[in-house]
Amino acid sequence: MAWNEPGKDDKDPWKNKGGNNQGPPDLDDLFKDLGNKFGGVFGGSGGSSSKSNNSFPSAVIILAMLVAVVVYAYSCIYTIKEAERGVKLRFGEYVGLVEPGLSWKWTFIETIIPVDVQTTRDLPAAGFMLTQDENVVRVEMQVQYRVVNARDYIFSVTNADDSLSDALDSALRYVVGHANMDDVLTSGREAVRQQVWAELDSIIETYNLGLLVVDVNFKDARPPEEVKDAFDDAIAAQADEERYIQEAEAYALSIEPRARGRVKRLEQEALAYKQQTVLDAEGAVARFDKLLPEYQAAPEVTRQRLYINTMEKVYSNTSKVMVDVDGGNNMMYLPLDKIMTQQQNAPRVIQQPVQSVPQSVPSKVNTSTGRNDRFNSGRN
Q1: Does the chain have fewer CB atoms within 10 Å around its N or its C terminus?
Q2: How many Cβ atoms from other residues are within 10 Å of residue 139's Cβ?
Q3: Tens of pLDDT, residues 11-36
Q4: Region (Disordered): which ranges (predicted)?
């Protein structure tokens, strides 16, 4: 049976037990009761419904405003790192750079974009390229750069890093396209690197990217796999050529000083010989000048003396003497070398045989000088 049937008033769930049948509670009364309770919490009086209705919204609003102010103030504080520079925007318009440290900005009005200006970044580039002599090579290169102007880096182009990558690829293909394959693979690598660097600087200068190219590294350049072995042999042969050239230069550097020293020594010896010859000639002239008056005074005596001195010099340089015996066809041979050797070893023993020369010998030999006195006197 339903609770609201006639005659069943005692089963009404909304029936006031105090005797007043007022029906279900009103929502306004429910909110008033809650307001009274919260009003007492925030300092309001729970006995007055009008005061509680006024104090509750104001307290909530004040509390919300305080929280919002604290959150906003916290959001306005920011920090720029030592290696960064901050690009400040006010309503999207550039207003300046922010130095490293703790700073303040107006949230929702100003925006800060931090940019790293000290870190060196790497950008690789690689690909198959066509050389001037119509050969295909694969070239790998790496560029090191850093940001030098934060404003240009953010606003000059849409993406400065992508623009630099495109510029590097363009410069690399331009330089390789104007070079021969041998230069790219072997001896011209340094020249290609320098040309790519210069071409890249000229390209990015017109775009004002705010970037500075620190270095360009030529990492690798190789031919296609089909001809790689042949080019490896060519590179090895070129390396051997350079090594041989360096060895030859080192040998030349070691030989040249010795040759120069030998030439200098020969020059000094030639000068000394020249001076000696001149002095000897001058001495001979001086002797002749002294001898001339003596010859003019006694020609025969001077002639004999000159002859004797000359023969003495001649016989002093020989150890064998042939003596022509007067009045016969026999010629006597005197082994002066053996006689002098025996005289040096045993002079007392050698002295007696020399004195007992037979009378048939027409001359006497002077063993000390090797001169035949009789023969010389006969010639005189």
Answers
A1: N
A2: 24
A3: 555 454 444 555 555 555 655 665 56
A4: 1-27, 344-380
Question: Both tokens of residue 79?
Answer: 């920090």
**What's the pLDDT tens digit per position in 204-256?**
998 999 999 999 998 877 777 777 777 778 778 878 888 999 999 988 888 88
3 state SS of 156:
coil
Please say whether the beta carbons of 373 and 366 come within 8 A: yes
- What's the token pair of residue 35? 């307001």
**Mean pLDDT across the stretch 176-201?**
88
Extract the tokens encoding 185: 């693979």
pTM given for the model: 0.47
3-state SS, residue 292: helix
How far apart CA 210 and CA 117 sit, in angstroms, is: 10
Give the SS3 label for residue 195: helix
Q: How far apart are CA 131 and CA 193, in angstroms?
A: 15
What the block records as the tokens of 42 is: 């925030």
* Token couple for 267: 């020059």
Rounded to whole angstroms, how far apart are CA atoms 12 and 341? 173
CB-based contact 146:120 (threshold 8 Å)? yes
